[in-house]
UniProtKB/TrEMBL annotation:
Keywords: Transcription, Transcription regulation
Protein name: MerR family transcriptional regulator
A Pfam family reported for this protein in Swiss-Prot or TrEMBL: MerR-DNA-bind
SUPFAM superfamilies listed in its UniProt record: Putative DNA-binding domain (SSF46955)
PROSITE patterns xref list: HTH_MERR_2
Family matches, as InterPro entries: DNA-bd_dom_put_sf (IPR009061), MerR-type_HTH_dom (IPR000551), Tscrpt_reg_MerR_DNA-bd (IPR015358)
GO MF annotation: an example: DNA binding
Source organism (scientific name): Burkholderia pseudomultivorans
Taxon lineage: Bacteria, Pseudomonadati, Pseudomonadota, Betaproteobacteria, Burkholderiales
GO biological process terms, semicolon-separated: regulation of DNA-templated transcription
Residues of the HTH merR-type domain: 1-27
């Protein structure tokens, strides 16, 4: 039972949905994990880590940037463009507000 709970916790930590985690168990309740799904999730985590690392670096730059305003900082403006491009629905929603 503790192993099942630990597997569920690990799956959630890795970003698997509850449905995906449920599919990791066989009909007998024992783990039956699809290794290809683990590889896919690891690849997705690598992409997320890379993207968040770039965002972190840009934020650190903006925090130390000597530009009088963040909007005058080319690096910060680039970060804003990247985020706006990746989240067009959020951008459209905020423009309507």
């Amino acid at each position: 039972m503790l192993e099942r709970l630990a597997l569920i916790a690990l799956g959630r930590e890795a970003g698997f949905s509850l449905d995906e985690i449920g599919a990791m168990f066989g009909a007998d309740g024992r783990p039956a994990i699809d290794r290809a799904k683990l590889d896919e999730k690891a690849d997705a985590l690598d992409r997320t880590i890379h993207r968040l690392g770039a965002v972190r670096d840009a934020l650190r730059h903006a925090a130390a940037c000597p530009a009088p305003s963040h909007l005058e900082c080319p690096s910060f403006r680039k970060l804003l463009r990247i985020v706006a491009h990746r989240h067009p629905a959020r951008r459209a929603k905020s423009e309507r507000a």
